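Hi R.,

Here's the chain you asked about this morning:
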Amino acid sequence: MSKQEDTYLTVDVPGPEILYKDRKSKFFGYVFPITSEDDVKPIIEELKKKHHTANHVCYAWQLGTDTVRYRANDDGEPNNSAGLPIYGQIQAYNVTNVLIAVARIFGGTKLGVGGLISAYKTAAQIALDESTIKKKIITQHYKITFEYKDMNSVMRVIKQKNLDIVSQKLEASCSYVISVRKTKANEIFDIFNTMQYIKIES
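And here is the predicted structure, written out as tokens:
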């Protein structure tokens, strides 16, 4: 993702379960939205309970936009034959904050490493095709502190620049937390920073 971009692709809700078959082996594919690495383990444990006859539940996940973290897990399949092909589809679809898992139920015929790579890749691809992928905006939050008398000046900028107020406190002095598109963040900071009696911080 280039520094100029301020959007990313992800899923809001889990995709439907998909089934891909290869020489009687069944591959059940899933896509889940995640917000942290802690989300992964409970989802995988649930899938292992659901598919208690599955020999392997392999997966890959990615988190972040500027700084990306990811992991690929073969769950006992030959090295790099499952997790990395699944992760390859995360990269191909350019999605993040997602977990893709594929549960395999062995059908009696060995597929070989090449066959496994192809099957896990295909299951992940179908699962992503069946999911609703959405474009989201990367935003930055700023806190603005000011006196009541300066509210009109602050509101004028907020309206002109079409900014969102995430939260507000109107007490002895006022403070807003505003949400700004990443590509506009420096410009908005500079506008408020040059206004007298108004404090802005990230």
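One quick note: The radius of gyration is 23 Å.

Cheers,
M.
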